[in-house]
Amino acid sequence: xxxxxxxxKSRRIAPPAAAAVRSKRQAPRPRPVAASRxxxxxxxxxxxxxxxxxxQTVTLTDNRTGKSYELPxxxxxIDAIGLRQVKTGSxxxxxxxxxxxFTNTASCxxxxxxxxxxxxxxxxxxxxxxxLAEKSTYLETxxxxxxxxxxxxxxxxxxxxxxxxxxxxxxxxxxxxDGFNYDAHPMGMLIGTVGAFSTYYPDARxxxxxxxxxxxxxxxxxxxxxxxxxAYRHSRGLPFVYPDNDLSFTGNFLSMLWKMSExxxxxxxxxxxxxxxxxxxxxxxxxxxxxxxxxSVGSSRPDPYSATAAAAAALYGPLHGGANEEVLRMxxxxxxxxxxxxxxxxxxxxxxxxxxxGHRVYKNYDPRxxxxxxxxxxxxxxxxRNPLLDIALExxxxxxxxxxxxxxxxxxxVDFYSGIIYQALGFPVEMFPVxxxxxxxxxxxxxxxxxxxxxxxxxxxxxxxxxxxxxxKYQAIAKRPKSAANHLDDHQHxxxxxxxxxxxxxxxxxxxxx
Length: 514
Ligand SMILES: CC(C)(COP(=O)(O)OP(=O)(O)OC[C@H]1O[C@@H](n2cnc3c(N)ncnc32)[C@H](O)[C@@H]1OP(=O)(O)O)[C@@H](O)C(=O)NCCC(=O)NCCS
Description:
With about 525 residues, this protein is mainly alpha-helical. The protein has helices at about 1-15, 15-20, 50-55, 130-135, 140-145, 155-165, 170-180, 185-200, 210-235, 250-260, 270-280, 290-300, 305-315, 325-335, 340-350, 365-385, 390-400, 405, 415-425, 430-450, 490-500, and strands at about 20, 35, 40-45, 55-60, 65-70, 115, 120-125, 125-130. The site of coenzyme A has 16 residues, from helix 19.
């Protein structure tokens, strides 16, 4: 019964005394509330305004009934379930909040990553990203994210050993990857293969066992680079290269990607370090689309490989981890610094977006973009300057002087420069989201572990505002009028069937469409 559920939840999340409903007769009317300049409510009562501010509650008046409700404020939030007591009558379900893209909804309590989007601050477990990028390694940062503290020398040694000894994959995985089409997008291969891991490690279902969670953590962090490299080698028709545990985490990844006939691959230290920095910067970013997918899918309690496949799928989209791929395509399309003003005009008219600009949380320069810009200089000293960098710098210069971007607080994000480095390192654009997914795995698994052990979490299940029809009568098929919802006419339908498929390699092949 909904009413019962509501009472139980409000006891658990919102203390009943503070959340109690006060009718006009039971209690004095709440003091008038005025809005401050920033839109937040400020107490403005005649006497005791300060005492009222200290009460950490908000008073909500339902103008339909005249009733007032006092809701507790905890950590700058009100519990959405507290709104359910706001009702017009006993058969009313109660008020809900509507927030289709979670723009103003905290879905969890988390101690992993802190972002102050207005000031451009990013911290992992309290450590500024700038310090970690300068001094740490990816594996040490992964330990910090997962376990909450920087490791001691002994802990780091053990952690590194545990991960290195998990880099191999079952031989059948090679066959599995071989089954993908020659021009399959490597991100699709990564998503499919990490999902398939759930069949290789059925013990991963024991998600309530801390030892099992730790084992799956090593496996996930260790095996992502292996399957990413295998996917890349498959798309190039090259033999797979097995992990080399003498090398660092990023050195081994470069070896699995680039090793040819030499007996041992020796990574170039500048590039190995650049990859470390990029991996550290991408390791976590609190409740982004893919972390939310990890938690949301994980909340129904499947094994973590299945949840990671969902997170990787969320990352694949061009508005998230696919953005760096889109940035490169955009820069190539612009092709020349001189054409930048023309494209800026288009973006302002809504004809496409300036990819790599703007962020849901950062309303300032993304701190990661600043670090990546510096890393780019170090890489280009070695590889030679990527000519796309000049176009990117010109885009940034013009956009940051343009009122459209300034007024909307659109600044370069992490994806704006990362693709330019990846390209200089020799990666094809299709690999860019994969290069994001490898390090983000540490963040996903840290978020997942936090969610699994959080007593406040339950299966993620939002509500909806139903806008469809009700109580319709089923009609036999012969009697149905032509449906307005049947949007493709015969001609359009044929065109869809026969349209060439734009594969990653640029080849068009309609024969593969069944
Ligand atoms: C990241 C992103 C999805 C955040 O989206 P969001 O928080 O939902 O912001 P919105 O889409 O509501 O954008 C707010 C306004 O800025 C504009 N805007 C946002 N990003 C823009 C961009 N990259 N280029 C041009 N205009 C942009 C929107 O058109 C909108 O304008 P309006 O108020 O006139 O309608 C968005 O900025 C974007 O698409 N960026 C490009 C993709 C990208 O780089 N993604 C990687 C993120 S790490």
